[in-house]
Amino acid sequence: RKKVIIDCDPGIDDSLALMLALASPELDVLGITTVAGNVPSDLGAKNALKILAHCHQLKIPVYRGADRPLKRDYVSAQDTHGNDGLGQSKLPEIHKNYHSNACEFINETLRKEQDVTLIALGPLTNIALAHQKDPKAWQNCTRFVSMGGNFKSFGNCSPVAEYNYWCDPEAAAYCFEHLPVKLEMIGLDVTRKMLFTPNILELIYQNAPKEAEFIQKITRFYFDFHWQYEKVIGCVINDPLAVLYAIFPELCAGFDANTQIVTSGIALGQSIVDEKNFWHRSPNSHVLVKVDALKAMQLFLARTCGLDPE
Ligand code: BDR
Ligand code: CA
């Protein structure tokens, strides 16, 4: 099984991604770390515990990480995910403690395990801090998959910037520049294709009503947000695609390129992908631009709700 650490900010779609990872036999989830993103990192850690409890996997440790971006003020996305980060779902509190020191956990794990894949579903603050503290440990990181950025698609925080990179652009810029592996960027170009619709929810209700109820509780707020601001029926679930891609790379297609993150001015947080190699810099990323979205959604439903993909 692939050893993975999931760094996240749950978050509605982060929660769906965690459910997917926990239900995937290909993955051995060594730990979950949380970062200031959709919600503050302590709330994210509590939410991760709620998802672990729902999936009966509370033995997986949760570590709280950075409570603010590297260099700038922290802006949460509670307008999108609800004050509680789980769509005002009022899931019961879990009486188990999370740990602090996400970065230490990441580095310690990298030091003692071989072949670890890091999947980042939020701003890259924890990752940048961990690497700054012990770059050598990162030699054992075989893959780094990050949901964030965009290639040609429009942004969701500004005309050009996606939230995870916009929230902490310095951390994102650091990771593209310094990690010893190519950053596999699952950006909005591909994740926007993952539209979770009321029809899909109805399908789950018919086959797995308990799961449907749980998913509906946490996605209702997201449905409303998408309708109100984008007139989209349903909601885009970005983060699960990063987990799916980590397991099944053939689901997405892309190319190697040098990518830079804008850290000042009007395009703050934008990911600029040098597809045509104008800069003559070596590729620091693998940028995913195409996805078999139907297959991806089928796999998501099979894993999280037991729906037969055939
Ligand atoms: C990303 O931002 C967050 O709101 C989501 O959880 C996802 O990780 C999409 O831009
Ligand atoms: Ca996220």
Provide keyphrases for this structure.
Nucleoside hydrolase; glycosidase; Inosine/uridine_hydrolase_dom; purine nucleosidase activity; binds beta-D-ribofuranose; alpha/beta; nine-stranded mixed β-sheet; 12 helices; 310 residues; globular; single chain; binds calcium ion
Q: pLDDT under 50 segments (min length 5)?
A: none
Q: How many angstroms separate the termini?
A: 24 Å
Given the structure, what is the number of helices?
A: 12
How many strands? Answer: 11
Bound molecules: beta-D-ribofuranose, calcium ion
Q: Name the structural class.
A: alpha/beta
Q: The biggest beta sheet, please?
A: 9 strands, mixed
Provide the residue-averaged pLDDT.
96
> How do the helices and strands follow one another from N- to C-terminus?
EHEHEHHEHEHHEHEHHEHEEEH
Q: Helical proportion?
A: 25-40%
Rough shape? globular
Radius of gyration over C-alpha positions, nearest whole angstrom: 18 Å
Strand content: 15-25%
- Write out the strand line-up for the largest beta sheet, numbering strands in chain order: 3-2-1-4-5-6-11-9-10
